[in-house]
Write a structure and sequence with these properties.
The chain has 93 residues and is mostly helical. Helices cover 41% and strands 4% of the residues. It has 2 helices and 2 strands, in the order βααβ. Strands 1-2 form a two-stranded antiparallel sheet. The longest helix is centred in the last third of the chain and has 20 residues. The chain is elongated.
C-alpha cells in the first residue's frame, strides 16, 4: 500500500478484529407511564395542582438553560409521582 500516487506521508493500516458483545447481566425494569390514571377527576386535579406549584417556583428564573432544566425536572417528577406504574403487565399470547 505504501507508494500509492498520493501526496501524503500517511500509511494506511489494515487489521482484523474479533469483537464479542455480551448482554448486560442485570435487567432493568423500565417504569411505564399510565396517562389513563388522569381520567379520574380527583387524581387529575391533584396532578394539576402539583404541577402548577412546581411551575410557579420556576417563574423567577432568568437563565434559559436553568429554566429549561427546572421545567423538565418539574414534569418528570410530577409524572413519576402520579403516572408511574410499578407493576408489570402480563402479555397475552
Amino acid at each position: 500500500m505504501p507508494g500509492a500516487d498520493i501526496e501524503s506521508d500517511h500509511i494506511p493500516l489494515r487489521a482484523d478484529i474479533i469483537l464479542r458483545l455480551s448482554r448486560p447481566n442485570e435487567k432493568t425494569v423500565r417504569k411505564t407511564l399510565e396517562p389513563k390514571v388522569l381520567k379520574d377527576e380527583e387524581r387529575r386535579s391533584l396532578y394539576e395542582e402539583h404541577l402548577y406549584e412546581e411551575l410557579e417556583s420556576i417563574r423567577s428564573i432568568n437563565d434559559t438553560n436553568e429554566h429549561w432544566l427546572k421545567l423538565k425536572e418539574a414534569f418528570t417528577e410530577t409524572n413519576e409521582i402520579f403516572l408511574t406504574n410499578t407493576g408489570r403487565r402480563k402479555r397475552n399470547k
